[in-house]
Amino acid sequence: MTTALKAPPLDPILDDIVRSHRPQQETGSVPANIPLLAAVPFDRFGIAVATTSGEVFSSGDADVPFSIQSISKVFTLAMALRGDSSGILWSRVLREPSGTSFNSLVQLELEHGIPRNPFINAGALVVTDHLMEETSDAAAQVLRFLTAQAASTGPFIDEAAAASELASSSRNRALAHFLKGFGNLKQPAESVVQNYVRQCSIMMTCVELAKAGLFLARDGHGSLGTVVSPSDAKRIGSIMLTCGMYDAAGEFAYRVGLPGKSGVGGGILVIVPGVCAICVWSPRLDAKGNSLAGTAALADLSDRTGWSVF
Amino acid sequence: MTTALKAPPLDPILDDIVRSHRPQQETGSVPANIPLLAAVPFDRFGIAVATTSGEVFSSGDADVPFSIQSISKVFTLAMALRGDSSGILWSRVLREPSGTSFNSLVQLELEHGIPRNPFINAGALVVTDHLMEETSDAAAQVLRFLTAQAASTGPFIDEAAAASELASSSRNRALAHFLKGFGNLKQPAESVVQNYVRQCSIMMTCVELAKAGLFLARDGHGSLGTVVSPSDAKRIGSIMLTCGMYDAAGEFAYRVGLPGKSGVGGGILVIVPGVCAICVWSPRLDAKGNSLAGTAALADLSDRTGWSVF
Amino acid sequence: MTTALKAPPLDPILDDIVRSHRPQQETGSVPANIPLLAAVPFDRFGIAVATTSGEVFSSGDADVPFSIQSISKVFTLAMALRGDSSGILWSRVLREPSGTSFNSLVQLELEHGIPRNPFINAGALVVTDHLMEETSDAAAQVLRFLTAQAASTGPFIDEAAAASELASSSRNRALAHFLKGFGNLKQPAESVVQNYVRQCSIMMTCVELAKAGLFLARDGHGSLGTVVSPSDAKRIGSIMLTCGMYDAAGEFAYRVGLPGKSGVGGGILVIVPGVCAICVWSPRLDAKGNSLAGTAALADLSDRTGWSVF
Amino acid sequence: MTTALKAPPLDPILDDIVRSHRPQQETGSVPANIPLLAAVPFDRFGIAVATTSGEVFSSGDADVPFSIQSISKVFTLAMALRGDSSGILWSRVLREPSGTSFNSLVQLELEHGIPRNPFINAGALVVTDHLMEETSDAAAQVLRFLTAQAASTGPFIDEAAAASELASSSRNRALAHFLKGFGNLKQPAESVVQNYVRQCSIMMTCVELAKAGLFLARDGHGSLGTVVSPSDAKRIGSIMLTCGMYDAAGEFAYRVGLPGKSGVGGGILVIVPGVCAICVWSPRLDAKGNSLAGTAALADLSDRTGWSVF
User: CB atoms < 10 A from the CB of A159, how many?
Assistant: First the structure.
């Protein structure tokens, strides 16, 4: 819904949010099995807001690149929908909350290889497999897309991190072979996993991610023209709201009231339809895998600005 | 979010929606085990919109009473939150989408008797149990609440239907005893089931339900004053969006983009924050238990009006 | 298989087993929610062997009555099979190991109300329901059967214990209503639960239980004539071996190698086909709900005597 | 238990069983995804009995090689136990019936990567991984073991079939990577899957398999000396009885009453402790993946001979 809401003066609010929410001591967890993410200093905290009127506000470590991880799933979904005039993607993946862990195989088995939504790992592997029909180097294409949308040459794939993560990607390999067994993966399982892990290893800053996600707040219109149709932009927002925060989507909708997508790198991308895209980043995670300080900061920002879709 | 959206002229739109969506032939299913619901003529179709500016629009069978069934869960949740200053309710029921059927015991067992959200049956039984701490006749209190909010003496409990439904409520009894076994039910299981079934058997019209639900579009302000706080109103909306349509919540958010709650009586209550509450009713159901014609009508109405939270 | 194995001299072996296995200090757990069972002194230990040649050996607390609990399921199954010439029972309950907890509802839901076997609670409720077609007081009939087979007037229903257990039988009530919802319970759920709990509250001694179970070691021939056919006797043995020890059936078959059925009262009934029936009792339980000292004693006895079906 | 049972004259019985049970028309199913197995003529039927007294009886297609498939799991388990003085194998795999499908990932996820028993695929992969600690070409070692026990140079690995099966082994790859993710696989996942598939592709005749399995009926003593200890022989028998027939173990124990292990190649190996080893083969399968004619023939043979452990 395009709203007439005028954004309040954001600079002081963002500065205050950084002061209030930057971690003072080490709490929360780091992703098991991804050593390079675990090594990021616990007190990193950045926030950026890109508005539909073309302004960008930021504070804290908003220009420090971090690993976007699962936030990439929003963009691969948009890229897949853009080229999917036949609607075949939605026969391979559903749009319902999963109610189970992001990398669970249980539901996938019970539901015969059709992932519950594109934001759990199984669904994201299917989306990447879909993108690979056009190009075998899907991760590079995701990088080009993000570079263009962010209007920045900053984004890059951290190949060392990707290689390290690949070495401990047994669960994702299991998911990929499982999908393959159900006939829901067209490319070789190992190739899909490699592209998936490399797309997750893209490094971006809060400012870049907020700008890259802005098309979702602008009815699908990105910096270089239409990315997706207005209805697809709304629909990506609805999937973010119902499925974007692992199995804490309900809690996030309850506390923040905005479509969001988090990654285990500690980033969260949030859309305020018609108003702005927000990216917050702080590396330590809660038990569900979402940024601890980031989630708190977004609840605070929502309270201060009145931004909520409800 | 309070929006400045002006509602388009609604009368011709609603009339057209009735013309387009009133079932012409018998399709869809009726609730198994509830004979009185199955007996409602398949071509019933009504729609009503109550706006925050005080107008009410309606068309079709908008003044025919029907069984509100699970739509009652929105109102019992609001009633429970109103009186729950200690927040104890949220220690007894979560706010996450369930990913499983509305009356499943599987998840409840795996999660040790804490229901996933207040809109699956197990969660609604806990909410009713919570209301019964104040009065043993919780169903009568729900009726009084609805009568007041709808500003109508129309609503009544169909006791014959309730008695009939009680006779085939084995699954709800199983859920109640199961909750009891986990210590998450305080009143006798049979009493909770009786109140639950009776609150579901309340008969209301589309016009009455739209008016009764209007407080959720008005930051919690009902016809007689504050029902719940603005933040609780938003939060009920978020639970409706993520959990309100059984296991088709994601699909409904995707197609309609608005918080909604359906009942197996064929009714759906939808909130457009800051704008209006909508109630549509048509008795035949899809495979997930949501009104077939009602869902289609709401998708159509959302397209025509641009109403969507995304 | 009727074997020619001669039993070794048993008296000194049993005495030695009592010396070795009677608990010296309090270890293991007691059944939650059944206070009267929890109150039994931890150092009780009895063992009795009734041979197909008509001898009875015993040692320790073999004449102290204890609550037979789930051991009753062996006898109700035999009673149900005896009268089930049409084989209808096996359309209502399967004969497969469950792989899940004895009182789980998960599998029952996934498998549409057909319990996996007659020894999990859901299956035993179906068996009791089956017996109630002949007499509403099925528990009294079970008592008469056991009294006759044990050739003793000792067995009795501990009605106080039954009443106490009934007050905390929420899970069994949930199972019964769940079965009712699937159409797999004919009598009222509450009546079935009452009979079930009362049959579990029958008090017997090791000597009485060994004698009562002897027909299973004698091709179905009991003290007063045929109880079940030779093939049904073998088949009950096979169900005991695969399903008799809750979810430790595999471990028990591995360590002891004999068909057995345990109860949370601490008793275990074991059959050595063609040779004898054994009952051991000691009240403290392991994590799976089987008698800790009893299981160890049976492994020891199996090693000393060479008794094993493998 | 060593029994004194004298085998009845077997030649006429086996001939009669072949006459009665050889399929006359095509019923049952063939394994999906293994074309070479599906191509075996439906009317193949062979049976062989190797007795502890050194005789071998056979009838029908008892000298036609077939793919042993999961029957190999009995032998890899014996090989692993033989060399596992430390008992480490039993910390990596349990001994309980699974209650779920042979290649399910659900239970494996819920139980954190510890397979329920060595006869489901996940457990067998762990056993093969265990064998690979001694030699990377575990399948060749299994072949050597079988060749020696069968005292025949006949057994061979059908490498073409293995290659074909490997091409459609996505589910087994998923299981292997899943186990790897839980730290319960030491060798590379792909290598374990290759060895596993090749051990399953060993071709043997009924006569050879009966002779190879005879050590399990002789307290662990094989043709060339001790294979496993008497207690391990009994224990393998107990695992066969409780877990050997996929999720029809209970039904097989009920109908046949003997420890058995089946393969999707249509073979079933059965042990009569102290008496003989039996192998029956017929390629068409029932819904659980066990040989249709083979299972019926074994029930018939058990009835005619009285062979049963119960």
Answer: 11
Per-residue exposure over D172-210, b if at least 16 CB sit within 10 Å of its own CB, e if not: bbbbbbbbbbbebbebebebbbbbbbbbbbbbbbbbbbb
Q: Are B282 and B293 in contact (CB under 8 A)?
A: yes
The single-letter code of the amino acid at C276 is C
Each domain of chain C, given as residue ranges in start order, spans 10-305
- Are the beta carbons of A242 and B253 separated by less than 8 Å? yes
Of D171, D180, D181, the CB nearest to A181: D171
Q: What is the pLDDT of residues D248-260, one digit of tens each?
A: 999 999 999 999 9
This model of the complex carries an ipTM of 0.90
HEC secondary structure over B74-118: HHHHHHHHHCCCCCCHHHHCCCCCCCCCCCCCHHHHHCCCCCCCC
The shortest CB-CB distance from A106 to any of D109, D175, D180 is to D109
Contacts of B31 in chain C (CB under 8 A): none
Closest Cα in chain B, distance from residue C187 (Å): 13
Q: Which amino acid is at D99?
A: G
Q: Number of Cβ pairs closer than 8 Å across B and C?
A: 55
Is D100 touching C (CB cutoff 8 A)? yes
Q: What angle do CA C299, C304, C309 make, to 5 degrees?
A: 65
Which residue is closest to B275 within chain A, CA to CA? A310
Sign for the pseudo-dihedral over CA of D156, D160, D161, D162: positive
- B180 φψ region: left (φ > 0), alpha (ψ -120 to 50), beta (else): alpha
How confident is the prediction along chain C (310 residues), in pLDDT tens digits per residue?
444 455 568 999 999 999 999 999 998 998 877 888 889 999 999 999 999 999 999 999 999 999 999 999 999 999 999 988 788 999 999 999 887 666 677 778 878 899 999 999 999 999 999 999 999 999 999 999 999 999 999 999 999 999 999 999 999 999 999 999 999 999 999 999 999 999 999 999 999 999 999 999 999 999 889 999 999 999 999 999 999 998 899 999 999 999 999 999 999 999 999 999 999 999 999 999 999 999 999 999 999 999 999 9
In chain D, the N- to C-terminal Cα span, in Å, equals 11
Cβ contact (<8 Å) for B238 and A310?
A: yes
Q: CA-CA distance, D73 to B100, in Å (whole number)?
A: 36
Rounded to the nearest 10°, the torsion over CA D70, D71, D74, D80 is: -60
CATH superfamily of A10-305: DD-peptidase/beta-lactamase superfamily (3.40.710.10)
Q: What is the pTM of this model?
A: 0.91
- Within chain A, what is the greatest distance between any pair of CA atoms? 54
Residues of A in contact with D181 (CB under 8 A): 170-171, 174
Q: Which residues of D146-169 are buried (b: 16+ CB within 10 A; e: fewer)?
A: bbebbeeeebebbeebbebbbeeb
DSSP symbols for chain D: ----PPPPPHHHHHHHHHHHHS-SS--SB--TT-HHHHTS-TT--EEEEEETTS-EEEEESTTS-EE-GGGHHHHHHHHHHHT-TT-THHHHS--S--SS-TT-SHHHHHTTT--S-TTSHHHHHHHHHHHTTT-S-HHHHHHHHHHHHHT-S--EE-HHHHHHHHHT-HHHHHHHHHHHHTT---S-HHHHHHHHHHHHTEEE-HHHHHHHHGGGGTTTEETTEESS-HHHHHHHHHHHHHHTTGGGHHHHHHHT-S-EEE-TTSEEEEEETTTEEEEEE-S-B-TTSSBHHHHHHHHHHHHHH-----
Under 8 Å between Cβ of C280 and C206: yes
Q: Where are the beta strands (DSSP E) in chain A?
A: 46-51, 56-60, 66-67, 156-157, 202-204, 221-222, 225-226, 260-262, 267-272, 276-281
